[in-house]
Design a protein that fits this description.
By secondary structure, the chain is an alpha/beta fold. Helix content is 34%, strand content 24%. It has a six-stranded mixed β-sheet, with helices on one face. Helix 1 links the parallel strand 3 and strand 4. The relative contact order is 0.11. The structure holds zinc ion and fe (iii) ion. Fe (iii) ion (FE) binds next to helix 2.
Length: 262
């Protein structure tokens, strides 16, 4: 019996605010959402790692743009959503499918999370309690509804909320401070949120990433997971943004408000 090498996740900053995620032991790596190949190749080289797999959450260019260049250098499987057209996918995935990687040794269950795009998927490792959710759930926020409905997105977020509170949320963008500024407008009296804003602001001042975040903290501070909270619903109604107490309509009102919030 051999000892399992320790797994790590490294953030690869790309473009202005993307994080590409590299899951690796001391020799082998899998990359999630390589929107750009160059910084991935640079990190593989710096850490002396071999790429063994590519995992994709959805079809947007900032998540898949580096796939073809990586495939020129590494002949590896490309996992991705069954319901989106993405060049290079070898393994099409749908709700409850499993991804079993030999090296790095990790397995994921696939969660369908339509809303940001129609076929968006997320990858959850229950052994590690790591969630790679692309542009569905963000630290303090959620993705825009480009192809899906508010109803779909609330259902998708509810699936993610049902994971263990200790789950680390590896989302794909550093949007946290602007998300939390909006969150404070939507739920000004939430003391967990007030505290979080101060801490995350300090991390950004030090130049640190605010992700991964922790799912339990998202549940207590992220307004898009709190669309059933009466304080949020009351405020939306008072401001004339909502005309019922329906949680899906509350979510839609929050999402619309956030789209123009500065
Ligand atoms: Zn996207
Ligand atoms: Fe994105």
């Amino acid at each position: 019996m051999s000892v399992k090498p320790t797994l790590q996740v490294s953030a690869i900053p790309a473009f202005t605010d993307n994080y590409l995620w590299l899951i690796h032991d001391d020799q082998h790596a899998a990359v999630v959402d390589p929107g750009d190949a160059a910084p991935v190749l640079a990190m593989l080289k710096a850490k002396n790692l071999q790429l063994d797999a590519i995992l994709l959450t959805h079809h947007h260019a900032d998540h898949v743009g580096g796939v073809q260049d990586l495939l020129q250098k590494f002949d590896v499987p490309v996992y991705g959503p069954a319901n989106e057209k993405i060049a290079g996918i070898t393994n099409k995935l749908d709700q409850a499918d499993r991804v079993e990687l030999a090296s790095p040794a990790i397995s994921f269950s696939v969660i369908d999370v339509p809303g940001h795009t129609a076929g968006h998927i997320a990858y959850f490792s229950d052994e590690q309690a790591w969630l790679f959710c692309g542009d569905t759930l963000f630290a303090g926020g959620c993705g825009r509804l480009f192809e899906g409905t508010a109803k779909q997105m609330t259902q998708s977020l509810a699936k993610l909320s049902a994971l263990p509170d200790s789950t680390l949320v590896y989302c794909a963008h550093e949007y946290t401070l602007s998300n939390l500024r909006f969150a404070l407008a939507a739920e000004p009296d939430n003391s967990a949120l007030q505290q979080r804003f101060i801490l995350e602001e300090q991390r950004r001042t030090r130049g640190e990433a605010t992700v991964p975040s922790v799912l339990g903290l998202e549940k207590s501070t992220n307004p898009f997971l709190r669309n059933q909270e009466s304080a949020i619903i009351d405020l939306l109604i008072t401001q004339g943004r909502l005309h019922s107490r329906d949680p899906v309509e509350a979510f839609a009102a929050l999402r619309e408000w956030k789209n123009t919030f500065r």
